[in-house]
Design goal:
Structural class: mainly alpha
Radius of gyration: 26 Å
Oligomer: single chain
Strand content: 5-15%
Strand order of the largest sheet: 1-2
Distance between the termini: 70 Å
C-alpha cells in the first residue's frame, strides 16, 4: 500500500471518529491509529488544508467538526438524470434530437 493510500485510509478513519466525537485525546488517538503523535498532527493538518473545520474539544475530550462536513476520497459512479446530462454536455443531446426531427419533418414534406 502506498503512502498516499495509507494517509487517505487514516483520514477516513479519523473522519469517522471525529463525526462520532470519539477520537479521545491526541495520545489516545495516535495509539488507536498505531501512528506517532507527529504523524497524527500531519494528517490532521492535511485534513485542515483540505477544508476540514477541525478543533479539539476539551469538554468532549475529542477532536470535533465545528460544522457539518462530509469526506469522500475515491471514485464513485452516479447515474445521471437527463437534466444533469444536459448540463454536462451543454444540451447537445437535445440539439441532436431537434436536428433529427427537422430532417424527418423536411423529408416528410418532400414526399408529399
Amino acid at each position: 500500500m502506498s503512502k498516499l493510500s495509507r494517509t487517505i485510509e487514516s483520514m477516513e478513519r479519523i473522519h469517522m471518529l471525529i463525526k462520532r466525537r470519539a477520537t479521545g485525546t491526541p495520545n489516545e488517538l495516535s495509539e488507536r491509529m498505531e501512528i506517532s503523535k507527529a504523524s497524527l498532527h500531519r494528517i490532521l493538518d492535511v485534513m485542515k488544508e483540505l477544508g476540514a473545520p477541525i478543533e479539539y474539544s476539551v469538554v468532549d475530550q475529542s477532536y470535533i467538526y465545528t460544522t457539518y462536513v462530509s469526506f469522500y476520497c475515491g471514485f464513485y459512479i452516479k447515474e445521471l438524470q437527463e437534466q444533469e446530462q444536459q448540463k454536462i454536455n451543454g444540451g447537445f443531446k437535445i440539439l441532436k434530437k431537434l436536428a433529427n426531427n427537422i430532417i424527418i419533418s423536411k423529408n416528410e414534406t418532400e414526399i408529399f
